[in-house]
Amino acid sequence: MKKLGFLFILVIVHCTRVESFDPSDFDSAETENVDTSGCLPGQIQISGDSCLECSAGTYANTDDDLQECSTCSYDTYSGDEAAECTACDSGLGTLEEESGDVSDCIEVCMVPNIEFVDSLSPESRVAEGGNVQIICKDGYYYGNSGSQTVACSSSTNNFPASCRKVTISDTESSVKAGDNGVLSCVVEAHDIGTAIQWFKNDSAIALTSDDTAYTIVTSLATDFEDDSVTKKSTSTLTILDFDSADVASYFCRVIYSDPILSDQSPEQALKILDITETPSKAHIASEAASLQLIIYLLLLIS
Length: 302
Description:
Elements: H1 2-19, H2 23-30, E1 43-47, E2 50-53, E3 58-59, E4 70-71, E5 76-77, E6 86-87, E7 108-110, E8 117-121, E9 125-127, E10 131-136, E11 147-151, E12 165-169, E13 174-176, E14 181-189, E15 195-200, E16 203-204, E17 214-219, E18 231-239, E19 249-255, E20 267-268, E21 273-274, E22 276-278, H3 281-301
Parallel strand pairs: 13-22
Antiparallel strand pairs: 1-2, 3-4, 5-6, 7-9, 8-10, 10-11, 12-14, 14-18, 15-16, 15-19, 17-18, 19-20, 19-21
Protein backbone atom coordinates (compact mmCIF):
# COMPACT_ATOMS: atom_id res chain seq x y z
CA MET A 1 0.00 0.00 0.00
CA LYS A 2 2.85 2.34 0.77
CA LYS A 3 4.52 1.51 -2.59
CA LEU A 4 1.40 2.36 -4.60
CA GLY A 5 1.06 5.67 -2.83
CA PHE A 6 4.62 6.66 -3.69
CA LEU A 7 4.12 5.78 -7.40
CA PHE A 8 0.93 7.82 -7.51
CA ILE A 9 2.80 10.88 -6.18
CA LEU A 10 5.52 10.52 -8.87
CA VAL A 11 2.92 10.33 -11.65
CA ILE A 12 1.25 13.51 -10.43
CA VAL A 13 4.55 15.36 -10.26
CA HIS A 14 5.59 14.20 -13.72
CA CYS A 15 2.26 15.16 -15.25
CA THR A 16 2.39 18.56 -13.65
CA ARG A 17 5.77 19.31 -15.24
CA VAL A 18 4.57 18.37 -18.76
CA GLU A 19 1.41 20.45 -18.48
CA SER A 20 3.38 23.55 -17.45
CA PHE A 21 5.69 23.41 -20.60
CA ASP A 22 4.94 25.97 -23.39
CA PRO A 23 6.19 24.74 -26.80
CA SER A 24 6.23 28.31 -28.16
CA ASP A 25 9.03 29.10 -25.74
CA PHE A 26 11.22 26.49 -27.40
CA ASP A 27 10.36 27.60 -30.96
CA SER A 28 11.23 31.22 -30.34
CA ALA A 29 14.39 30.53 -28.41
CA GLU A 30 15.92 27.60 -30.26
CA THR A 31 15.05 28.22 -33.96
CA GLU A 32 16.10 31.90 -34.18
CA ASN A 33 18.87 32.47 -36.88
CA VAL A 34 18.89 28.79 -37.76
CA ASP A 35 19.72 28.09 -41.44
CA THR A 36 16.78 25.99 -42.58
CA SER A 37 18.56 25.06 -45.84
CA GLY A 38 21.38 23.38 -43.96
CA CYS A 39 24.00 25.42 -45.88
CA LEU A 40 26.41 27.97 -44.44
CA PRO A 41 26.67 31.61 -45.58
CA GLY A 42 28.64 31.69 -48.82
CA GLN A 43 27.04 28.43 -49.93
CA ILE A 44 23.93 27.49 -51.90
CA GLN A 45 21.85 24.34 -51.66
CA ILE A 46 21.96 22.43 -54.94
CA SER A 47 19.99 19.26 -54.07
CA GLY A 48 18.79 17.65 -50.88
CA ASP A 49 21.37 18.33 -48.22
CA SER A 50 24.18 19.05 -50.73
CA CYS A 51 25.75 22.53 -50.59
CA LEU A 52 27.98 24.30 -53.12
CA GLU A 53 30.54 26.91 -52.11
CA CYS A 54 30.41 30.21 -54.03
CA SER A 55 33.62 31.02 -55.89
CA ALA A 56 35.61 34.25 -55.60
CA GLY A 57 33.77 37.20 -57.10
CA THR A 58 30.38 35.83 -56.06
CA TYR A 59 28.46 35.53 -52.80
CA ALA A 60 25.42 33.96 -51.17
CA ASN A 61 23.55 34.92 -48.04
CA THR A 62 21.35 32.10 -46.73
CA ASP A 63 18.77 34.59 -45.51
CA ASP A 64 18.02 35.39 -49.17
CA ASP A 65 17.07 31.78 -50.03
CA LEU A 66 19.23 31.93 -53.19
CA GLN A 67 19.32 29.16 -55.75
CA GLU A 68 22.59 30.40 -57.27
CA CYS A 69 25.56 32.52 -56.24
CA SER A 70 25.19 36.24 -56.98
CA THR A 71 27.86 38.24 -58.83
CA CYS A 72 29.73 41.04 -57.08
CA SER A 73 29.00 44.37 -58.79
CA TYR A 74 31.54 46.91 -60.04
CA ASP A 75 33.84 48.37 -57.37
CA THR A 76 33.37 45.40 -55.01
CA TYR A 77 35.09 42.05 -54.58
CA SER A 78 34.85 38.80 -52.62
CA GLY A 79 36.90 35.72 -51.85
CA ASP A 80 35.72 32.12 -51.89
CA GLU A 81 32.59 31.20 -49.92
CA ALA A 82 31.65 34.82 -49.19
CA ALA A 83 28.35 35.85 -47.64
CA GLU A 84 28.68 39.37 -49.08
CA CYS A 85 30.92 41.51 -51.30
CA THR A 86 33.39 44.03 -49.92
CA ALA A 87 33.55 47.57 -51.32
CA CYS A 88 36.88 48.90 -52.62
CA ASP A 89 38.54 51.70 -50.69
CA SER A 90 37.54 55.26 -51.54
CA GLY A 91 38.93 56.41 -54.89
CA LEU A 92 39.42 52.86 -56.17
CA GLY A 93 37.26 50.65 -58.36
CA THR A 94 37.27 47.53 -60.49
CA LEU A 95 37.44 47.15 -64.26
CA GLU A 96 34.99 44.25 -64.30
CA GLU A 97 32.17 42.79 -62.28
CA GLU A 98 32.82 39.54 -60.35
CA SER A 99 36.19 40.68 -58.97
CA GLY A 100 37.74 38.07 -56.70
CA ASP A 101 40.49 39.88 -54.82
CA VAL A 102 41.30 43.22 -53.22
CA SER A 103 44.14 43.57 -55.74
CA ASP A 104 41.44 44.15 -58.38
CA CYS A 105 40.70 47.51 -56.74
CA ILE A 106 42.70 50.10 -58.70
CA GLU A 107 42.43 53.69 -59.92
CA VAL A 108 39.83 53.58 -62.67
CA CYS A 109 39.20 56.04 -65.51
CA MET A 110 35.66 56.12 -66.89
CA VAL A 111 35.36 56.25 -70.69
CA PRO A 112 32.77 58.89 -71.67
CA ASN A 113 30.02 58.53 -74.23
CA ILE A 114 31.24 59.66 -77.68
CA GLU A 115 28.86 60.32 -80.56
CA PHE A 116 29.30 58.80 -84.05
CA VAL A 117 31.52 55.99 -82.74
CA ASP A 118 31.45 52.49 -84.21
CA SER A 119 33.34 50.97 -81.27
CA LEU A 120 35.32 51.79 -78.12
CA SER A 121 37.89 49.44 -76.63
CA PRO A 122 37.54 49.18 -73.66
CA GLU A 123 33.93 50.33 -73.73
CA SER A 124 33.43 51.90 -70.31
CA ARG A 125 36.37 51.49 -67.90
CA VAL A 126 40.13 51.44 -68.15
CA ALA A 127 42.97 51.72 -65.67
CA GLU A 128 43.99 55.32 -65.00
CA GLY A 129 46.30 56.42 -67.82
CA GLY A 130 45.38 53.40 -69.93
CA ASN A 131 44.67 53.67 -73.65
CA VAL A 132 41.26 53.63 -75.29
CA GLN A 133 40.92 52.92 -79.00
CA ILE A 134 38.25 54.99 -80.76
CA ILE A 135 36.94 53.69 -84.08
CA CYS A 136 34.58 56.16 -85.73
CA LYS A 137 31.58 55.34 -87.85
CA ASP A 138 32.15 55.14 -91.59
CA GLY A 139 32.70 58.63 -92.97
CA TYR A 140 33.47 60.15 -89.56
CA TYR A 141 36.92 60.98 -88.23
CA TYR A 142 38.81 61.98 -85.12
CA GLY A 143 41.97 63.90 -85.97
CA ASN A 144 43.07 62.92 -89.47
CA SER A 145 42.00 59.31 -89.15
CA GLY A 146 38.98 57.10 -88.63
CA SER A 147 40.57 55.66 -85.49
CA GLN A 148 42.64 57.07 -82.65
CA THR A 149 44.17 55.81 -79.41
CA VAL A 150 43.62 58.17 -76.48
CA ALA A 151 45.05 57.99 -72.94
CA CYS A 152 42.27 58.08 -70.35
CA SER A 153 42.69 60.54 -67.49
CA SER A 154 40.27 61.21 -64.65
CA SER A 155 41.65 64.71 -64.13
CA THR A 156 41.74 65.84 -67.79
CA ASN A 157 39.18 65.15 -70.50
CA ASN A 158 41.23 63.98 -73.46
CA PHE A 159 38.21 62.74 -75.40
CA PRO A 160 36.18 64.52 -78.07
CA ALA A 161 32.44 64.84 -77.69
CA SER A 162 32.10 63.07 -81.02
CA CYS A 163 33.85 61.81 -84.10
CA ARG A 164 33.55 64.41 -86.84
CA LYS A 165 32.59 64.40 -90.47
CA VAL A 166 34.44 66.97 -92.57
CA THR A 167 33.75 67.10 -96.30
CA ILE A 168 34.13 69.38 -99.27
CA SER A 169 30.83 69.36 -101.10
CA ASP A 170 28.87 70.96 -103.92
CA THR A 171 31.94 71.48 -106.08
CA GLU A 172 33.13 70.76 -109.60
CA SER A 173 36.47 69.10 -110.31
CA SER A 174 37.39 71.71 -112.90
CA VAL A 175 37.05 75.46 -113.15
CA LYS A 176 37.18 77.54 -116.31
CA ALA A 177 39.86 80.18 -116.62
CA GLY A 178 38.54 83.57 -115.58
CA ASP A 179 35.62 82.07 -113.62
CA ASN A 180 35.41 81.85 -109.84
CA GLY A 181 36.13 78.50 -108.18
CA VAL A 182 33.88 77.79 -105.19
CA LEU A 183 34.60 75.17 -102.50
CA SER A 184 32.30 74.47 -99.54
CA CYS A 185 33.64 72.82 -96.36
CA VAL A 186 30.95 71.18 -94.21
CA VAL A 187 31.65 70.00 -90.65
CA GLU A 188 29.22 67.71 -88.79
CA ALA A 189 30.06 67.11 -85.13
CA HIS A 190 28.74 67.16 -81.57
CA ASP A 191 31.14 69.89 -80.51
CA ILE A 192 32.06 73.25 -82.03
CA GLY A 193 35.44 74.14 -83.47
CA THR A 194 37.09 77.51 -82.96
CA ALA A 195 37.87 78.03 -86.66
CA ILE A 196 37.93 76.43 -90.10
CA GLN A 197 41.22 76.89 -91.95
CA TRP A 198 41.65 76.53 -95.74
CA PHE A 199 44.82 75.20 -97.33
CA LYS A 200 46.22 75.34 -100.87
CA ASN A 201 48.41 72.29 -101.24
CA ASP A 202 50.04 72.27 -97.77
CA SER A 203 50.06 76.02 -97.17
CA ALA A 204 47.39 77.85 -95.20
CA ILE A 205 45.47 80.49 -97.11
CA ALA A 206 45.87 83.77 -95.25
CA LEU A 207 43.52 86.53 -96.34
CA THR A 208 44.54 90.17 -96.46
CA SER A 209 42.22 93.15 -96.08
CA ASP A 210 42.44 93.95 -99.81
CA ASP A 211 42.70 90.36 -101.03
CA THR A 212 41.83 89.97 -104.71
CA ALA A 213 42.61 86.25 -104.95
CA TYR A 214 40.18 84.73 -102.41
CA THR A 215 37.13 85.29 -100.23
CA ILE A 216 36.23 83.05 -97.29
CA VAL A 217 32.88 83.03 -95.51
CA THR A 218 32.66 80.85 -92.38
CA SER A 219 29.66 80.05 -90.20
CA LEU A 220 30.43 78.12 -86.99
CA ALA A 221 27.55 76.19 -85.43
CA THR A 222 25.98 77.49 -82.24
CA ASP A 223 22.93 75.22 -82.01
CA PHE A 224 22.12 71.55 -82.52
CA GLU A 225 20.45 70.27 -85.67
CA ASP A 226 17.00 68.68 -85.44
CA ASP A 227 18.47 65.37 -84.24
CA SER A 228 19.74 67.12 -81.07
CA VAL A 229 23.14 65.55 -81.69
CA THR A 230 24.72 67.09 -84.76
CA LYS A 231 26.08 70.60 -85.02
CA LYS A 232 26.91 71.73 -88.54
CA SER A 233 29.49 74.37 -89.44
CA THR A 234 30.32 75.58 -92.95
CA SER A 235 33.03 77.58 -94.66
CA THR A 236 33.00 78.68 -98.31
CA LEU A 237 36.22 79.45 -100.17
CA THR A 238 35.89 81.42 -103.40
CA ILE A 239 38.91 81.51 -105.72
CA LEU A 240 38.55 84.73 -107.71
CA ASP A 241 39.37 84.96 -111.44
CA PHE A 242 40.76 81.44 -111.67
CA ASP A 243 43.96 81.00 -113.66
CA SER A 244 46.84 78.53 -114.02
CA ALA A 245 48.43 79.72 -110.74
CA ASP A 246 45.34 78.49 -108.89
CA VAL A 247 45.62 74.87 -110.09
CA ALA A 248 46.25 72.97 -106.81
CA SER A 249 44.79 70.70 -104.15
CA TYR A 250 42.61 72.47 -101.60
CA PHE A 251 41.37 71.18 -98.25
CA CYS A 252 39.96 72.50 -94.99
CA ARG A 253 40.83 71.81 -91.38
CA VAL A 254 38.73 72.33 -88.28
CA ILE A 255 40.69 73.81 -85.39
CA TYR A 256 39.66 72.84 -81.85
CA SER A 257 40.82 74.32 -78.56
CA ASP A 258 42.38 72.32 -75.71
CA PRO A 259 41.76 69.90 -74.21
CA ILE A 260 39.71 68.27 -76.96
CA LEU A 261 42.63 67.96 -79.36
CA SER A 262 45.51 68.97 -77.11
CA ASP A 263 47.79 66.31 -78.55
CA GLN A 264 46.15 65.69 -81.91
CA SER A 265 46.50 67.14 -85.38
CA PRO A 266 43.73 69.45 -86.56
CA GLU A 267 40.84 67.88 -88.44
CA GLN A 268 41.45 67.45 -92.15
CA ALA A 269 38.86 67.17 -94.90
CA LEU A 270 38.60 63.70 -96.33
CA LYS A 271 38.07 64.84 -99.88
CA ILE A 272 41.05 66.82 -101.21
CA LEU A 273 39.79 68.35 -104.40
CA ASP A 274 42.05 68.83 -107.42
CA ILE A 275 41.00 71.84 -109.48
CA THR A 276 42.13 71.69 -113.11
CA GLU A 277 42.22 74.66 -115.50
CA THR A 278 40.08 74.45 -118.64
CA PRO A 279 39.62 77.09 -121.37
CA SER A 280 36.84 79.61 -120.83
CA LYS A 281 34.10 80.33 -123.41
CA ALA A 282 35.69 83.67 -124.23
CA HIS A 283 39.03 82.00 -124.86
CA ILE A 284 37.43 79.40 -127.15
CA ALA A 285 35.55 82.12 -129.07
CA SER A 286 38.75 84.10 -129.52
CA GLU A 287 40.58 81.04 -130.84
CA ALA A 288 37.72 80.30 -133.28
CA ALA A 289 37.76 83.88 -134.58
CA SER A 290 41.51 83.70 -135.14
CA LEU A 291 41.13 80.44 -137.04
CA GLN A 292 38.40 81.90 -139.23
CA LEU A 293 40.64 84.89 -140.04
CA ILE A 294 43.50 82.60 -141.04
CA ILE A 295 41.20 80.60 -143.32
CA TYR A 296 39.89 83.82 -144.90
CA LEU A 297 43.42 85.08 -145.60
CA LEU A 298 44.43 81.76 -147.12
CA LEU A 299 41.43 81.90 -149.42
CA LEU A 300 42.37 85.43 -150.56
CA ILE A 301 45.94 84.39 -151.31
CA SER A 302 44.80 81.41 -153.30
